[in-house]
TrEMBL record:
<dbReference type="InterPro" id="IPR014756">
    <property type="entry name" value="Ig_E-set"/>
</dbReference>
<feature type="domain" description="IPT/TIG">
    <location>
        <begin position="634"/>
        <end position="715"/>
    </location>
</feature>
<dbReference type="InterPro" id="IPR013783">
    <property type="entry name" value="Ig-like_fold"/>
</dbReference>
<keyword id="KW-0732">Signal</keyword>
<dbReference type="Pfam" id="PF01833">
    <property type="entry name" value="TIG"/>
</dbReference>
<protein>
    <submittedName>
        <fullName>IPT/TIG domain-containing protein</fullName>
    </submittedName>
</protein>
<feature type="signal peptide">
    <location>
        <begin position="1"/>
        <end position="35"/>
    </location>
</feature>
<dbReference type="InterPro" id="IPR002909">
    <property type="entry name" value="IPT_dom"/>
</dbReference>
């Protein structure tokens, strides 16, 4: 079936409002023009026939397909006339039919199908019932709408169901109800109203879950289960809703009582075999009851073996003597019988009756290939006339036919077995009686050494040379060796072994690269060892010789030579590469060539060389590694001989063996070491320049040390140079204080003039000669606390490479009071100006803000003597004008004064 990709979420082309309902036409209200196709029919929702009534089928998209989508389909009749016909699907929430979703997609003309996948979960929401219909858009025409189908989205399985059982209640072992073999009922109850079935699985069951239908939608279900094992058990249960969703899981745990007897036998254990017991030999089996009131145990072996019973005699544990009647694996079934004759579930005890032959002899069972193991076989069943034996390899393969070994008159036999294959893992031996009865097989573990030859080599590293090999093997009585070079059949040699069992052989090497020989040995019987051998690399790379730069030891830090000698036939030149040099050099008549090289640095280096023939064939590459020892590090002098303190200075050190990575320190006499920065090293490594910060260095002699690295000792030169005091800056014109010297005013400091000109300045203000804490700026706002004091400013001038200079200004006049405070908002009189009332003065607003206020009240222009904030009006004041003058006071400032507007006192 052809599948078409839907155009999800494609918006409508017009702003038309849709009113959607069952079989209603959507659009502008007009009947569509005659269309070439009919309205779609055969509608399906997620593969189900259209349901024309809500809620329709319940669907869980995640359980429908890999796309997690609801698939809508239909077929149409007729043939579209346009080049690009489309299926127009409309899907709507049944509660909002006037807001449909539109989904447009292409058609499938070969089967007249309309098809869409609703993949957007935000448009297919859980718990919503949707309706849908479809039509065909054929150019400007449209088919009639299809009928309307319904479906409901259900994405959630819900909470886990409850589980209950009367016989097997949940809880610990003390609450165990039923026992092994005792069937019990388990009831599953859903917490959801749309459950249709339950999936469940009891512990110990297969991985597959079983399903049971609910008793009606949302109803319970009951299953019956018979435990086969005791102790703790469980059942895992899911509720399945009508959309196929699985609920959360409930794991119901319960206990099953043990009513089967316990069985133990050392004569016939269930984990191995006891060779003292066998067919017809009675062995003790202990039965222990797990059921109170047990009076006897009934037992049987398989379905056709011996059976019987044994009374307990009131004891919980009894012993039964049982003689198996056949060999091999078999099962003893035992059950408890109580006084009322009731029988309880059986215990199945599996054991093996061993009648395989007893094997003694080479019990270590380790053997070298070609050698033999010897065993003595004794029967453990009657009338044994022969034995059969065979091998098994590590892949489990066994021969098609077994070897027969006759037994003596006493039924015994001696077996000599020769190892012929390293893959042998085990030897099996089985006895056979006169009537053809076979015993159980005896398993004998075998370990065979393949005795692969050990090969040593001398020579043969170079093309054209001969390699000599010696091979030896642990195999006894070796007769010959077969050898191959690189598995080439034309190189095969079959050589007799020497008297000491070794062989020596030779090959002349004609090819370069990875090379190997393989060797096998054989004895006179033709038994062959596993393959041994050795491998190595054959080269035609040139030989490099240098007395100046030997591959062992070290070369000097000076020019030297390398000589190349060919191993490649026909070499006419060499290509080489090494630190600071690469190129080609022609070979002399004897095939050698020499180059000269000057090391650029000490340390380990590698030279790469190839020889080249006239036709351009290259040899393998030689890697020649060598070590260049550095010149001995010495420090002989430092210049200049005298260096000023106070800045970063450059010094030049002479000596030998300097490197850019050297660590240089300068230590002033009596001071701490100062780490310098290496600026440059001369090509001959005899001169080094470095920058050292002497800003805070003390004067006097200084030593210089050079250290190649953190693992090497430093080389020092005492009294290498002198550190002298730096020239100080000199004040030419003293600094001065500028501005009004009054409280609240800002004064400034001029820097004065300095020789030479300074590059930076710092400031310190003082009052009457005492430094003012924190007053270190170029300007200073005078506080009231300095009223009457004289100000000075000290300026410190600095310049790299010079000692700082300091100069102090002349003292100012005493700091005067600041200007009188100004009222920005005048005071007012508040309250009722009537005889007998009290009025109050506001302070107004002042700049700068006042510390305190005083008040002067006047009546009729005369001071009253009242200086408080309030005034009580008397009869004598009737008809007169009252004013108040507020005096604003602030430390260090002249007082400010402001009068209020007058108010007239009324009767």
């Amino acid at each position: 079936m052809r599948t078409f990709a839907p155009m999800f979420g494609r918006p409508l082309a017009t702003a038309t409002t849709f009113a959607v309902g069952c079989a209603m036409v959507v659009g502008a209200g007009a009947t569509p023009a005659a269309a070439a196709v009919g309205g779609p029919t055969d509608l399906t929702t997620a593969g189900r026939a259209c349901e024309a009534q809500a809620p329709g089928p319940y669907l869980s998209p995640v359980r429908l397909n890999d796309a997690n989508a609801v698939v809508l389909r239909g077929t149409y009749s007729g043939t579209p006339q346009s080049a690009d016909p489309q299926a127009d699907f409309q899907v709507w929430d049944v509660t909002t039919p006037d807001a449909p979703q539109q989904w447009l997609t292409g058609l499938a003309p070969e089967n007249n199908q309309v098809y869409i996948q609703l993949e957007d979960p935000d448009r297919q929401r859980h718990g919503i019932t949707y309706a849908w219909r479809v039509r065909v858009l054929d150019g400007a025409d449209a088919s009639p709408w299809s009928g309307t189908c319904y479906f409901t989205i259900d994405r959630i399985g819900g909470p886990a169901p409850d589980v209950a059982s009367v016989k097997y209640p949940s809880g610990d072992w003390e609450h165990a109800g039923g026992a092994v073999g005792d069937a019990g009922s388990f009831t599953f109850t859903s917490t959801s109203d749309d459950t249709v079935s339950y999936q469940y699985r009891f512990s110990g069951a297969d991985d597959e879950y079983a399903e049971v239908p609910a008793e009606g939608l949302g109803g319970p279900a009951t299953v019956t289960w018979t435990p086969q094992d005791a102790s703790q058990q469980s059942v895992s249960v899911y509720a399945i809703d009508r959309a196929g969703n699985w609920s959360e899981r409930n794991v119901y745990e319960f206990w099953v009582r043990e009513t089967r007897p316990s069985v133990f036998s050392s004569a016939y254990p269930d984990w191995s075999t006891n060779l003292d017991y066998g067919v017809g030999v009675p062995g003790a089996f202990e039965f222990t009851s797990n059921v109170p009131g047990t009076e006897s145990f009934a037992w049987r072996i398989d379905g056709d073996g011996p059976s019987g019973s044994v009374a307990t005699g009131g004891d919980r544990t009894v012993t039964a003597m049982i003689a198996p009647t056949r060999a091999g694996r078999q099962t003893l079934y035992v059950r408890s019988v109580t006084a009322d004759g009731a029988t309880h579930p059986e215990r199945a005890y599996t054991f093996v009756v061993d009648n395989a032959p007893r094997v003694t002899g080479d019990v270590d069972r380790y053997v070298i290939i070609g050698s033999s193991l010897r065993f003595h076989l004794a029967p453990r069943m009657p009338e044994v006339t022969s034995y059969l034996y065979w091998t098994r390899d590590y892949n489990g393969n066994e021969p098609d036919e077994k070897t027969v070994l006759p037994a003596g008159t006493d039924g015994t036999a001696d077996l000599t077995w020769t190892a012929t294959s390293e893959s042998t893992q085990a030897l099996y031996v089985q006895s056979r009686s006169a009537d053809g009865t076979l015993s159980e097989p005896r398993f004998i573990s075998i370990s065979v050494s393949g005795a692969s030859p050990y090969v040593t080599r001398s020579g043969g590293e170079v093309v054209g040379s001969t390699a000599t090999f010696t091979a030896r093997t642990e195999m006894a009585n070796v007769a010959e060796y077969e050898v191959l070079l690189n598995r080439d059949p034309s190189t095969r040699q079959v050589l007799p072994a020497a008297a000491d069992g070794t062989v020596t052989f030779r090959y002349t090497l004609t090819k370069r690269g990875y090379t190997y020989v393989t060797v096998v040995a054989r004895n006179a019987a033709g038994v062959q060892t596993t393959e041994g051998g050795t491998s190595w690399s054959v080269t035609d790379s040139p030989v490099v010789v240098s007395t100046d730069f030997p591959s062992s030891g070290s070369g000097k830090f000076a020019p030297g030579t390398f000589t190349f000698k060919p191993r490649q036939l026909g070499a006419v030149k060499y290509t080489y590469q090494m630190p600071g040099a690469e190129g080609t050099v022609a070979a002399a008549a004897d095939g050698t060539a020499t180059i000269t090289w000057t090391p650029s640095d000490a340390g380990y280096h590698t030279l790469y060389v190839k020889s080249v023939t006239a036709d351009g064939a290259e040899s393998l590459q030689t890697y020649y590694s060598f070590y260049v020892a550095p010149d001995p590090l010495t420090v002989t002098s430092v210049s200049p001989a005298s260096v000023e303190t106070g800045a970063v200075r450059t010094i030049t050190i002479t000596g030998s063996g300097f490197h850019q990575e050297d660590q240089v320190t300068v230590t002033p006499s009596g001071g701490t070491a100062i780490v310098a920065t290496v600026r440059s090293v001369s090509a001959d490594r005899r001169t080094l320049t470095a920058d050292v910060d002497l800003t805070s260095a003390g004067v006097g002699k200084a030593s210089v040390s050079v250290r190649p690295d953190e693992w090497s000792d430093q080389v020092s030169l005492a009294d290498a140079f002198s550190i002298t005091g730096a020239q100080a800056l000199r004040s030419v014109t003293a600094p001065a204080v500028t501005g009004t010297v009054a409280v609240g005013a800002t004064v400034g400091a001029s820097t004065g003039e300095w020789s030479p000109a300074a590059s930076a300045y710092t400031y310190q203000w003082a009052a009457d000669g005492t430094a003012i804490s924190g007053a270190t700026g170029a300007t200073y706002v005078i506080p009231a606390s300095l009223l009457g004091k004289r100000l000075t400013v000290a300026v410190t001038a600095t310049k790299p490479g010079y000692a700082s200079g300091r100069a102090t200004s002349q003292a100012t006049v005493p700091v005067a009071k600041g200007p009188a405070l100004q009222a920005t908002v005048k005071p007012t009189i508040t309250g009722t100006p009537r005889v007998g009332q009290t009025v109050q003065a506001t302070t107004g607003t002042w700049t700068p803000a006042a510390d305190s206020y005083r008040y002067e009240w006047r009546v009729g222009g005369e001071l009253t003597g009242t200086t408080t904030k309030t005034l009580t009006l008397t009869a004598a004041m009737r008809g007169k004008a009252v004013t108040v003058t507020v005096v604003a006071v602030k430390a260090g400032y002249a007082n400010g004064r402001a009068a209020s507007a007058p108010v007239t006192v009324r009767a």
